[in-house]
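Continuing from the previous page...

OK, I double-checked the sequence for MotA/TolQ/ExbB proton channel family protein against my notes and this is the correct one:
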Amino acid sequence: MNVMEFYRAGGPYMNLISLMAILTLVITIWKSVDIFSKKAHNFKLLDLILLGGSVALALGLLSQIVGIVQALNAIIEAADVSPEIVMGGAKVSFFAPIWGFIVFIFSMIFYFVLKEIIKAKIE
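Thanks. Re-ran it with the corrected sequence; updated structure tokens here:
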């Protein structure tokens, strides 16, 4: 399975998680430019990086819960469901949380690196 198939299979929440990733990246670049070119050494907007990653993680977990509830409703309505179909759906339900965790991990790295750089420049 390639990346685009993984992304499409993850459902509509993948777009929201990607939006949080872009927001986090834009704020990280903005703060990096402030720190290294404008010599602005403050913690302003830094928490938004961490917030973007946290929201991405929460959206990923929410999407999994919503997907599993929908799948369970479909299983209840169907008379006979094969285990292969159930396991295939369960596998797909992990795609959005994985993407949310990836965004969260990178936002944590960006946040703590920028925070330490700012602390070192203030001292």
